[in-house]
Design goal:
Blueprint: E1 2-9, E2 18-21, H1 37-47, E3 77-85, E4 97-105, E5 110-114, E6 117-119, H2 121-128, H3 145-151, H4 154-165, H5 168-247
Antiparallel strand pairs: 1-2, 1-3, 3-4, 4-5, 5-6
Length: 248
């Protein structure tokens, strides 16, 4: 697998569409300070999923969008497209060439693509895991990073070695399983709290339901008695009326 083409538009200092073609073997890009050589490395990092803008020498996401000059107006978005040769099938895709693309707008919205199909950043990260081309892999080393690797903490060097050997993929899978187990444990804990609360409410509602049933029963009996009293009073009144009519 090797990088065949890089197309950059609106990313950092690349205001116009810039296409860089690479050949197998060693490719060298030379130029004076400030011409944008480091921005090419940043573009590669960015398109394969770098989320920390500080690692791209910026402060916020819109810092990677061309901000304009006296001669050129600012761009509304940045786009980088990278074409990889996958004839050796290192990437687990049934394509001999794989195109990765990323866009970001000044609104902050980002889009990721694999072979023109929109995907999540997680999909791109998982695709490169274990290949050595991940955003934290050994294949991309910027200015000053080699010294940081040599003089850095043991854990930092270990992560790079794991990425180089391909074992970091299993570490990430393990961490993902542990995270899911932890989330499941938290869900079970919350479920236990809900069940306990429902049981308490069940007892309270059972008591209220029994009182309601008793009320309906007594109310029914009360209505029956009231009806009997009214009928009795009506019958008595009718008798009195008949008696007085007969008397006169």
């Amino acid at each position: 697998m090797y990088l065949k083409r890089l197309e950059i538009k609106g990313f950092k200092s690349f205001a116009d569409i810039t296409e860089i073609n690479f050949e197998p073997g060693i490719n060298i890009i030379v130029g004076p300070n400030g011409c944008g050589k480091s921005n090419i490395v940043d573009a590669i990092r960015w398109v394969i999923g770098e989320a920390n803008i500080r690692n791209l020498r910026g402060q916020k996401s819109e810092d990677v969008i061309f901000n304009g000059t006296d001669d050129k107006r600012a761009q509304s978005m940045a786009q980088v497209e990278m074409l990889l040769d996958n004839s050796d099938e290192i990437l687990p895709l049934d394509y001999s060439e794989v195109t990765m693309a990323r866009k970001v707008f000044r609104s902050g919205e980002s889009e990721f693509y694999i072979n023109k199909s929109r995907v999540r950043m997680k999909d791109i990260t998982e695709l490169f895991t274990g290949t050595g081309l991940g955003k934290k892999g050994y294949s991309i080393i910027g200015q000053g990073e080699l010294e940081q690797v040599l003089s850095g903490q043991a854990l930092d060097r270990r992560l790079i070695l794991e990425e180089a050997s391909g074992t970091i993929k299993y570490r990430q899978q393990r961490d993902e399983v542990k995270r899911r187990l932890e989330n499941t444990s938290n869900d079970l804990l919350r479920l236990g709290d809900i069940i306990s609360e429902v049981r308490e409410r069940k007892e309270e509602l059972g008591y209220k339901a029994e009182r309601a049933r008793r009320y309906l029963q007594l109310n029914k009996e009360c209505l029956g008695l009231e009806r009997k009293v009214l009928l009795s009073e009506l019958a008595y009144g009718q008798q009195e009326l008949n008696r007085k009519q007969n008397k006169f």
